[in-house]
Design a protein that fits this description.
Elements (H helix, E strand, L loop, with lengths): L8 H11 L4 H13 L3 H12 L17 E6 L8 E7 L8 E5 L10 H9 L3 E5 L14 H18 L6 E6 L1 H12 L9 E5 L5 H8 L15 H4 L7 E6 L7 H10 L4 E6 L7 H4 L1 H12 L15
Parallel strand pairs: 3-4, 3-5, 5-6, 6-7, 7-8
Antiparallel strand pairs: 1-2, 2-4
Helix pairs in contact: 1-3, 5-6
Length: about 300
């Protein structure tokens, strides 16, 4: 996602709609009545504008780096299971930690290559998935339920690939942070667990995002997509690193502060001065490297080698 793109197109569109209408109260009441009556088309429109899925390549994408493998995996065991597309980018070091990368709204993997590259430069092997409706994955319109299912399918692949939970991490950016928190909260402390959860530029729940962006004009109970991260993060049984750019114009930094407060220990909050919604990893690369090494106990000389510069 470019730095000029709204993080949550649905909520930005909704705010513009409500702010330009003189009869705001009537408009909100009318929408509430329609949703209460079970208007499927409104829920579908909400999902379309929440995820903004695209099968098209980002216009700045120039191709996969050397070493990236493409694969497709079914989301469940049925013969007719939909398939999601994924990239596997292993580190040269076979003992390197592995990250499941979960992206946010609008851009598919091709639009996330810069951030994926930066994480790979930090010494991680990367397994990144496109949810249904994105990139080369099956389907057209995701939902909260399907992105959770897709993330679990991706995690199952990681677990099968890397047997040691101490070398497995979950990373989510923006809306992907909510997906990552849901996945982490569903994992036990056994063989399917992880060394840690990293969430960046994400929010507490979608209702609070709606209230923030629409300035309280839209009743949050009308949202079908909940993404209730602040409750789920309290059930995460692994170390949690919460990252946010202090200059984020789309998702207020106070949301990450609230997530950090709700998360159980051990936990760490990394606020990046001058970081935007999309560039905290590059702007704060030295702090990112230090915190990853110190907080998660990674070997900075081995697992986090080659991190001098980032694109």
């Amino acid at each position: 996602m470019s730095s000029n793109e709204p993080a949550f197109p649905f909520l930005m569109t909704l705010r513009a709609f409500l702010m330009r209408r003189p009869w705001r109260t009537f408009t909100i009441f009318a929408i509430a009545v329609l949703i209460a009556s079970g208007c499927v088309s409104l829920e579908q429109k909400e999902r379309e504008l929440t995820f903004r899925p695209s099968h098209a390549e980002a216009n700045w994408y120039t191709g996969l780096p050397a070493g990236v493998q493409e694969l497709d995996l079914p989301v469940h065991a049925s013969a007719d299971a939909p398939r999601i597309h994924a990239w596997w980018w292993p580190e040269d070091d076979p003992g390197a930690p592995v990250i499941l990368y979960l992206h946010g709204a609008r851009w598919n993997l091709t639009g996330n290559l810069n951030r994926i590259t930066q994480l790979h430069q930090l010494g991680f092997s990367i397994f990144a998935i496109d949810y249904r409706g994105f990139g080369k994955s099956d389907g057209d319109l995701p939902s909260e339920a399907t992105v959770y299912e897709d993330a679990r399918a991706g995690w199952n692949w990681v677990v099968a690939r890397e047997a040691d939970p101490a070398r497995r991490f979950i990373y989510g950016h923006s809306l992907g942070g909510a997906v990552a928190i849901d996945l982490a909260a569903s994992l036990g402390g056994g063989g399917d667990g992880a060394r840690g959860l990293i969430v960046e530029s994400t929010f507490t729940n979608f209702a609070e995002m709606a209230s923030e962006i629409t300035r309280g004009l839209f009743p949050s109970v009308m949202l079908s997509q909940k993404f209730d991260s602040v409750d789920k993060i309290a059930r995460v049984h692994m170390p949690v690193l919460v990252v946010h750019g202090q200059g984020d114009r789309f998702v207020p930094v106070r949301f990450s502060e609230a997530l950090y407060k709700a998360a159980p220990s051990p936990k760490r909050l990394l606020l990046v001065p001058n970081g935007s919604h999309n560039n905290s990893l590059s702007i704060g690369s030295s702090n990112y490297q230090r915190v990853l090494a110190d907080f998660f106990g990674l070997d900075a000389g081995r697992s986090l080698a080659g991190t001098g510069t980032h694109g």
